[in-house]
Each structure stands twice: as C-alpha cells, then as structure tokens.
Amino acid sequence: MPKAIYIEANGGQYEVDVEVGQSLMEAATENMIDGIIGECGGVCSCATCHVYVDPAWVDKLAPVGDMEESMLDMANDPQDNSRLSCQIEMTDELDGIILRLPASQF
Fold first, then answer.
1. Which of 8, 34, 36, 88 could be a cystine partner for 12, CB 3.0 to 4.6 Å?
2. What is the pLDDT of residues 32-69, one digit of tens each?
3. Domain that holds residue 45
C-alpha cells in the first residue's frame, strides 16, 4: 500500500498507509494527524487541510483547480507548493509523498 509522510512544523513525522483513491486529507484525519482537520469533509470549501507539498512531488500532482486556488487564498501563509490535502488523491505513483504542515492553521 502506498505511504504518505506528514511532517509537523515542530518536526514530528508520521508515515501513513493510504489506499489508492483515498484523499490525503482523509488518510490524515483517520490517523489523527494533528494539524489537519478537514472541517468541510473534503469538498474543497475550507482550508483546514492545507499542506505544503515537498518540492520533489509538486510536479507529480494534478494542477490546482479554480476552487482549490480560491480556498488556498484563505489558508494561513500560502506558498507556491501549498495544496489542500483533500484535493490530492493517492496513487501508486505518489508512494512516499512528503507533506509538511503549516506552523498554525487555526
């Protein structure tokens, strides 16, 4: 099963098994990753699942859609590699993806 690596701002790291087709937000909330809430349930209507995708993985993701882009404008400290983890669906090709969590989202 593919894995995602979540790294907290304080350096804490979690390696999580993620089913192909599952969103990285769902995997984080199911595994109690602190800092990802997914308040809207993954329908891209909040920014409580904001992550920074490690630069090595950015080009392997589908482009940011218009709705996600507008939600990222509401995120705390958005960067060029900011994404909403609800909009990243796990694939075999993303095995080992590294996601960093912002210092404080809320």
1. 8
2. 998 899 888 888 989 999 999 999 999 999 999 999 99
3. 3-100
Backbone angles phi, psi at 17, to 5 degrees: -75, 135
CATH of the domain at 35: 3.10.20.30
Q: How far apart are CA 75 and CA 51, in angstroms?
A: 9
**Is residue 81 within 8 Å of residue 52, measured between CB atoms?**
yes
CA distance 54 to 56: 5
**CB of 18 within 8 A of CB of 24?**
yes
Contact between residue 43 and residue 15 where contact means Cβ atoms under 8 Å apart: no
Q: Is 106 a member of any domain?
A: no
Strands, E assignment, the chain: 3-7, 13-17, 50-53, 82-84, 97-100
Identify whether 105 is part of a domain: no
